[in-house]
């Protein structure tokens, strides 16, 4: 189970529901962008440090072991995720890195990021606490939250 982000080109006036519907209905994926991928990997290393990449064009994957953040550029599509394995301040830090890396993907790919958990584009997310609350709820549901001893 993971917290996911999607990337797409949104036309002026087009709702995200329309964008996601069009993505599901399309017959051909967009062209892959190996140059954007190389730029994203370089910037991800600046932000996160050591990352692992797997490249088998037209598919590329990047993973950051410490946070679990994953960036995928599969057959022209971009998506990101981070597992729900943290809570509280750790989740806040993972989300901060996820969103910062998502901004890099937006700049380098020319696409817009959408957070389906919050139902909003990245550019409209000022308060990350609702996302942190989702991590906390998953931690509670699976008994992963531990209290820090006083």
Describe it:
The protein is an alpha+beta fold and 150 residues long. Helix content is 40%, strand content 23%. The chain is built from four helices and seven strands, in the order βααββββαββα. The protein has helices at 16-25, 34-48, 88-109, 129-141; strands at 2-8, 52-56, 59-63, 70-74, 77-83, 112-115, 120-121. A hairpin with a 2-residue loop joins β4 and β5. α2 (34-48) packs antiparallel against α3 (88-109) and α3 crosses α4. The longest helix is centred in the middle third of the chain and has 22 residues, at 88-109. The mean pLDDT is 91.
List keywords for this structure.
single chain; 150 residues; alpha+beta; Cell Division Protein Zipa, Chain: A; seven-stranded antiparallel beta sheet; 7 strands; 40% helix
């Amino acid at each position: 189970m993971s917290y996911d982000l999607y990337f797409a080109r949104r036309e002026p006036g087009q709702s995200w529901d329309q964008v996601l519907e069009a993505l599901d209905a399309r017959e051909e994926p967009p062209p892959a962008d190996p140059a954007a991928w190389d730029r994203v990997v370089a910037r991800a290393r600046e932000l996160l440090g050591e990352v692992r990449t797997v490249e088998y064009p037209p598919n590329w994957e990047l993973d950051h072991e410490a946070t679990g953040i994953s960036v995928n550029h599969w057959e022209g599509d971009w998506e990101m995720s981070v597992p729900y394995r943290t809570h509280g301040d750790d989740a806040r830090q993972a989300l901060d890195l996820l969103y910062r890396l998502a901004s890099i993907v937006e700049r380098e790919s020319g696409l817009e990021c959408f957070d389906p958990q919050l139902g909003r584009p990245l550019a409209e997310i000022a308060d990350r606490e609702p996302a942190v609350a989702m991590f906390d709820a998953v931690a509670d549901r699976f008994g992963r939250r531990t209290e820090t001893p006083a």
